[in-house]
């Protein structure tokens, strides 16, 4: 058997790891200084979560159910038509087909989901690809500060890179051991456990790196640019 049939191509993996480490160093301090890592008087209740914030942000109610929020249209993208474009302020724009996406390093994580409409779903087990691993593939230029994420339904949302590059930000395809259901953004959506959930685009189709901030769909309509749950930062 050829070596590259038994394991991911070692050179390629090394390049991803190098790029990931470089990017991590560049943003590490900014990540460590975000409100959900450092706020001294975070708003909320319950025991500390893994980054030291109260498990339940202010004015949130825990639900076991999982409400569905969308723009009234759930785009159904067959896997053989699915593509994810990553472009903008990057050295190596790419377009991933389903098999390319699934061949990337996969991350499992359990995280909380806080919706701006005041429900929180706690300890959700996800599987997907880290945003930071995708960023390492395309190599953001020095000028990149934010990303705009776009959904197949016409949705968009903007995020600062120091939030998007956190290790719990994933593009997930599996939840609770099952393929992500269509109504929750399957085949792939983004999750942003340290920001309100509208920052995670369902049915994600494009990530555009930006050399400055721009407003997404809800941000243009008065939702907060920053969306910090432990600051009750919902509307601007
Ligand atoms: N593409 C797309 N992504 C989206 C939305 C949307 O309407 N379209 N709604 C956002 C909002 S407001 C929330 S709270 C979460 C809801 O995810 P859920 O429907 O899986 O609970 O998705 C976010 N991502
Ligand atoms: Mo929302």
Automatic annotation (TrEMBL):
This is Sulfite oxidase-like oxidoreductase. InterPro entries: OxRdtase_Mopterin-bd_dom, OxRdtase_Mopterin-bd_sf. Residues 75-218 form the Oxidoreductase molybdopterin-binding domain. The lineage of its organism: Bacteria, Pseudomonadati, Bacteroidota, Cytophagia, Cytophagales. Pfam families: Oxidored_molyb (PF00174). Residues 28-59 are annotated as: Disordered.
